[in-house]
Amino acid sequence: MKRNLITLAVAMFAFNVTAGSDPHWGYSGKTGPQNWYNLSEANASCEGQNQSPIDLSGFVESTLSAIDFSYQAQGHEIINNGHTVQVNFETGSQIKLDQHQFNLVQYHFHSPSENHINGKSYPLEVHMVHADADGALAVVAVMFDEGAENEGLAKAWASLPKHAGDKHSLSTPVSAFDLLPKSQDYYRFNGSLTTPPCSEGVRWLVMKQPLTASKAQISSFQSTLHEPNNRPIQPLNARVVMQ
Ligand SMILES: [Zn+2]
């Protein structure tokens, strides 16, 4: 049942653009994060004990095995769904983790970053959302500092869809590999979707090494969304962050 809900959440996440901007939740006011749990019975998890994002700190030393990335240039369309800008992928890009396969469904962005590392917020964060055959999710997150222009972003954002509901085909398909740092050391914790319905049981893999994006790239994303799209930091509770 829980798996089905998560699958549904991913499907909604990927396809809610067809309905344009979802009017039922946002990042401020009465439909903001403090009230998400109240907006729908489906959002009960937003009050859960294992929510994302978090401030990653107090790391527990562990023997995390390398994530086996196998990414192809299969990002074929870019969508402004009113909450973020998202690139959707054809099947064929995947990671191997915990000895099974998670397929890359989409990546999308938050500005400022949702997760913090040792108390530090970044101006931009990408979430690469993967699902296994049962609908369980693994999200690879990468932080961006302001600095040199990022070529991967330049490719994907060549035609940023300006209005909620806008969708463009990418004339040259993009690979999520372009948004991975050279070092693939990462932090790991258990968390949730950072948007309603806030479903838990999500494997979070946050790359330690940040990338850079230019000031112009960051501000073009911010001006497209009109408002910050970061959920506030959630309590860690009984969880640990492994490294
Ligand atoms: Zn996200």
From TrEMBL:
It catalyses: hydrogencarbonate + H(+) = CO2 + H2O. SMART domains: Carb_anhydrase. One of its GO terms (molecular function) is zinc ion binding. It is an enzyme of class 4 (lyase). The keyword Metal-binding applies. Its EC number is 4.2.1.1. PROSITE patterns: ALPHA_CA_1 (PS00162), ALPHA_CA_2 (PS51144). Residues 23-243 form the Alpha-carbonic anhydrase domain. Pfam families: Carb_anhydrase. It comes from the Bacteria. InterPro entries: Alpha_CA_prokaryot-like, CA_dom, CA_dom_sf, Carbonic_anhydrase_a-class, Carbonic_anhydrase_a-class_CS. Residues 1-19 form the signal peptide. The keyword Zinc applies. Belongs to the alpha-carbonic anhydrase family. Reversible hydration of carbon dioxide. This is Carbonic anhydrase. The lineage of its organism: Bacteria, Pseudomonadati, Pseudomonadota, Gammaproteobacteria, Alteromonadales.
